[in-house]
Each structure stands twice: as structure tokens, then as C-alpha cells.
Amino acid sequence: MLQESILKGKIALVTGAGQGIGREIALTLAQSGCKVGINDSNRQSATNVAQEIIAAGGSSIVLVHDVSVASEVQIMYQAIVQEFGQIDIVVNNAGIILKNAFCEITEEQWDRIIAVNLKSVFLSCQTAASYMREQRSGKIVNISSVAGKKGGGFLGNTAYGTSKAGVIALTKGVARELGPFGVNVNAITPGFIETDMVKSMTNELRATILGGMALKRPGKPRDIANAVLYLVSPLADFISGEIMDVDGGLMMD
């Protein structure tokens, strides 16, 4: 882990931070000196994470807003800026998974996964840009998935993969447009990470996935959090538009 003070005084927002990867990202940023806004649709989960940060001597605020709705995203950003004065780091992590076969997906299911996994990232990046362009600095990290490169596969299905592929393209485009304003925009594509999302996998499927990985073991939420920490730190000031695989050697592309 980077030194504790490397992000001291920075203001961070993490969406979908109530559990799993998002929770670990929020705690890691707080441990590194950030004041952290905890967004989640579940108030109790968000509150638990915020209280954990505060109990450790950090600063946090709970932000229960639907990140797929523009007005809610704007209110969320206004709240964190009002509380802490600015916004330096945004991690767009909120997401859902859908495992239905392509021919079985309903229009409502399609719209929902695109709204939560892709539209929310668009809305958050656009709102963050309104603050970061003015201050001419900022770091944005979008959490995609190897499914966005594989078109689904063992993590989710076609709809899930499509939503995460959209995050990859969005990241590159936003990086180009915000670069002249001193804003770095990158994405991480997690592979097989031990979270609630993969607990329903059969032993056979787990063995198949692990067999295709160089490291032959699943990752942990902390592996993704550490990658985020690097990308939002001064060590990555010359990195933008990067799609970073954190997948134990699965993709190697």
C-alpha cells in the first residue's frame, strides 16, 4: 500500500460503495488520507462503511442517490462539495449483473442494466467534469469488467458485457476531452474477484476460470482497491485513457 498521507486532504466519491469492491475502494482511499463520500442504494450498507471510516479517524458522508438518474447525481455531487468544499477523485463502481441468455432478456432488463452500469457512469463523469474542469484537476476511475472485452462470458451475459464495454469506450472518450483540463480518466477491468457476485458459481465453472488464469487463483476486492489507489495517486499523473486489467493474468491483451 502507498504511504498513508499520499492522498491527504483529497475529496473522493465512490459509487456502489456499500459492499464488495466498492467498500474496499472507499476504505482504502480513506486509509490513504481521503475524505470519502459513500454512495449506495442501500442506506444501511452505506452508513456502515461511513461509520467504519469515521471510527478509524477519517471523514465520510453518506450519499443515498440513484446514480442512473441525472437529477439524483447532481444532488449527490452538490452534497459532497457542500460538505467538503471540492471533488478531487471519483470512482464509478456501481453496477448490477444479469445472467439471462441473450434471447431471454426483456427490454426492461436491458434498459435497467444499461442504466445502472453505463448511463450512471456517463452521468457521473459529466457532472464530475463540471467541477474538475473549473479547478483544472481531478482523477476519475471507472470500474468496468473483463466481460466488457469478452462480450460477457463467465461473468454475466451479453447485456452485462455490452454495458461494461460501453464503460471502456466512454472512459477513452472522456479521457480525450478532459485531458486538456488536467483531468485523468482511466478504467479498471476486474476479472474473477471473490465477491457476493460470484458466490453462486459452480465448482466446475470456478475450476474452468482458474485454469485460464496465469495466477490460478481468484483475486480479492483489495486487489482492485490497490489498483484504484495507484491510478488516483500522483504516481499515475501521466496515465489517462488506460484500461487496466486486474485479472490474475486472464486476458493478457
TrEMBL record:
Protein origin, superkingdom: Bacteria
Query: What InterPro entries is this protein classified in?
Result: NAD(P)-bd_dom_sf (IPR036291), Sc_DH/Rdtase_CS (IPR020904), SDR (IPR050259), SDR_fam (IPR002347)
Does Oxidoreductase show up as a keyword for this record? Answer: yes
Q: Which segments does the entry list as coiled coil?
A: none
Alphabetically ordered keywords of this record: Oxidoreductase
Which organism is this entry from?
Pelosinus propionicus DSM 13327
Instruction: State the protein's name.
Output: 3-oxoacyl-[acyl-carrier protein] reductase
* GO MF terms held by the record: oxidoreductase activity
- Asked if the keyword Oxidoreductase belongs to this entry, the reply reads yes
Question: So what family is this one in?
Answer: Belongs to the short-chain dehydrogenases/reductases (SDR) family.
